[in-house]
TrEMBL record:
<keyword id="KW-0648">Protein biosynthesis</keyword>
<protein>
    <recommendedName>
        <fullName>Asparagine--tRNA ligase</fullName>
        <ecNumber>6.1.1.22</ecNumber>
    </recommendedName>
</protein>
<dbReference type="InterPro" id="IPR004522">
    <property type="entry name" value="Asn-tRNA-ligase"/>
</dbReference>
<keyword id="KW-0436">Ligase</keyword>
<dbReference type="InterPro" id="IPR004365">
    <property type="entry name" value="NA-bd_OB_tRNA"/>
</dbReference>
<dbReference type="InterPro" id="IPR002312">
    <property type="entry name" value="Asp/Asn-tRNA-synth_IIb"/>
</dbReference>
<dbReference type="GO" id="GO:0005737">
    <property type="term" value="C:cytoplasm"/>
</dbReference>
<dbReference type="InterPro" id="IPR045864">
    <property type="entry name" value="aa-tRNA-synth_II/BPL/LPL"/>
</dbReference>
<dbReference type="GO" id="GO:0005524">
    <property type="term" value="F:ATP binding"/>
</dbReference>
<dbReference type="Pfam" id="PF00152">
    <property type="entry name" value="tRNA-synt_2"/>
</dbReference>
<dbReference type="InterPro" id="IPR006195">
    <property type="entry name" value="aa-tRNA-synth_II"/>
</dbReference>
<comment type="subunit">
    <text>Homodimer.</text>
</comment>
<dbReference type="InterPro" id="IPR012340">
    <property type="entry name" value="NA-bd_OB-fold"/>
</dbReference>
<keyword id="KW-0963">Cytoplasm</keyword>
<comment type="similarity">
    <text>Belongs to the class-II aminoacyl-tRNA synthetase family.</text>
</comment>
<feature type="domain" description="Aminoacyl-transfer RNA synthetases class-II family profile">
    <location>
        <begin position="131"/>
        <end position="467"/>
    </location>
</feature>
<dbReference type="GO" id="GO:0004816">
    <property type="term" value="F:asparagine-tRNA ligase activity"/>
</dbReference>
């Protein structure tokens, strides 16, 4: 079965040539006009059925949702807004769809409703557009790094270490949960498990990535990442994709520059290659904005926001500078950011981040040099004895999109930090050992792929930018 994709047909000069289109019926009007979508583009193609010469039984089966194959002549379309249409000579139903029961009627459905039918929502314009943009972004990630000579390294999904020293990991085990083997003290005996130890799904490929940066120079990972945090927010998933470049001989400034270059490259790529889908998503986002109270509406449309971000430098400032700004700011008429006033060292809440990005600077912000106490053990300690060379990139409407740092490359300093925090240094022996043999200054960061997609598509819930979202209580499909 040789078909032509609709995307290609729409730019073909129509001269009555025979073509075959296969796809799903969106609408069927007047017993004559079938709008078909095949996912190659947001646009449908119109097929015109000769109903006088088509059996009634076949016409009845052309229903919204049905899968059809049509062959006919490609001709210029007299209808507005479409360059070509197909005069049907042969129509075949490949998959019937009961019109009464098909959940996707030709009307607007709420995203909440669509989330409950993740197996069918891919057939809506919104999800088609989002997934094509997602694909383009994944491709652009590889293109960017390839152009800069980075090596794509596949870090393991099952790991024996917890990079963050936090607890939010999914356990991987083959032990019988009801009746696990026990040691002499009666504790579960992990030595008898598949790997002979406790193992988890990865929360970050960074530590393994560093290993390869200290051999190949510039590397990146791009893979699924798992966090068993109670992620009932619009910005967290239990399974998400993370892009983690790691660069030898980069300091924190180089790291910040790469983060900006990378994000701007991706946004530019979307503007250049996803124009049609972005146009649609732009309209969608505008409609959604209209439902919000005036003061919460964003000043720029989605496309204007993308252009702005791709063209303007991000604001860089230290944590301490940010605190000073926040202390003297009154986000709304009544209250200041009270709790930050006395205490240097507190972690910023999303309301602070949003204030800096959306109200104060009105552009993306890179915050750096955070208090050591609120950041991870592997971040490079600054000479002030209080801060580490961490950086977070904050985006309008999103908050944190990237977290990164210059890594601590000095063995003694790192060991001391590991011990201070009571981390399991026996599990980290290999990571520490990297600092003993030819250590080098190096840096890296993690970009949450879905947060990027949120930003680029203007969608507002992270569950709507991944095909099958995983969140507490949801892993059916
Ligand atoms: P947050 O403060 O938003 O919880 P984080 O500081 O815990 O994020 P990092 O460990 O710095 O996250 O991970 C790097 C990036 O991965 C983040 O900047 C974010 O873009 C993304 N990310 C982190 N956790 C999640 C999650 N649960 N779902 C989706 N993306 C995430
Ligand atoms: Mg987190
Ligand atoms: Mg964070
Ligand atoms: Mg972070």
């Amino acid at each position: 079965m040789k078909r032509t994709k609709i995307k290609e047909l729409l730019t073909t000069t129509p001269s009555g040539q025979q073509v075959t289109v296969q796809g799903w019926v969106r609408t069927f009007r007047n017993n004559q006009f079938v709008a078909i979508n095949d996912g190659s583009t947001i646009q449908n193609i119109q097929a015109v059925v000769d109903f006088n010469n088509t059996p009634e039984t076949l016409l009845k089966r052309i229903t919204t949702g049905a899968c059809v194959s049509i062959t006919g002549e490609l001709v210029p379309s007299p209808a507005k807004g479409q360059p070509v249409e197909v005069k049907v000579q042969k129509l075949e139903i490949l998959g019937d769809s009961d019109a009464e029961k098909f959940p996707l009627q030709p009307k607007k459905h709420s995203l909440e409703f669509l989330r409950e039918i993740a197996h069918l929502r891919a057939r809506t314009n919104t999800f088609g557009a989002v997934m094509r943009v997602r694909h383009a972004m994944a491709f652009a990630v590889h293109k960017f790094f390839n152009e800069r000579g980075f090596v794509y390294v596949h870090t393991p999904v099952i790991t024996g270490s917890d990079a963050e020293g936090a607890g939010a990991m999914f356990r991987v085990t083959t032990l019988d949960a009801n009746n696990p083997p026990r040691d002499e003290q009666g504790k579960v005996d992990h030595k008898q498990d598949f790997f002979g130890r406790e193992t988890n799904l990865t929360v970050s490929g960074q530590l393994e990535g560093e290993t390869y940066a200290l051999a190949l120079g510039d590397i990146y990972t791009f893979g699924p990442t798992f966090r068993a945090e109670n992620s009932n927010t619009t910005r967290h998933l239990a399974e998400f994709w993370m892009i983690e470049p790691e660069m030898a001989f980069y300091d924190i400034q180089d790291n910040m520059q790469l983060a900006q270059d990378f994000l701007q490259y991706l946004v530019r790529y979307a503007l250049e290659h996803c124009a049609e889908d972005l146009e649609f998503l732009n309209k969608r986002a505008l409609e959604e904005e209209q439902t919000k109270p005036q003061e919460q509406r964003s000043e720029l449309s989605l496309i204007d926001r993308l252009k702005f971000v791709s063209e303007n430098d991000f604001q860089r400032l230290s944590y301490t500078e940010a605190i000073d700004i926040l202390r003297s700011s009154t986000p709304n008429k009544k209250k200041k950011f009270q709790y930050l006033i006395d205490e240097w060292g507190a972690d910023l809440q999303s309301e602070h981040e949003r204030f800096l990005v959306e109200k104060h600077f009105k552009k993306p912000v890179i915050l750096y040099n955070y208090p050591a106490a609120i950041k991870s053990f592997y971040m490079r300690q600054n000479e002030d004895g209080k801060t580490v060379a961490a950086m977070d990139v904050l985006f309008p409407g999103i908050g944190e999109i990237i977290g990164g740092s210059q890594r601590e490359e000095r063995y003694d300093r790192l060991l001391k930090r590991v011990q201070e925090l009571g981390l399991p240094d026996k599990d980290l022996w290999w990571y520490l050992e990297l600092r003993k043999f030819g250590s080098a200054p190096h840096s890296g960061f993690g970009l949450g792929f879905e947060r990027l997609i949120l930003f680029v598509t203007g969608m507002t819930n992270i569950r709507d930018v991944i095909p099958f979202p995983r969140f507490p209580g949801n892993a059916e499909f």
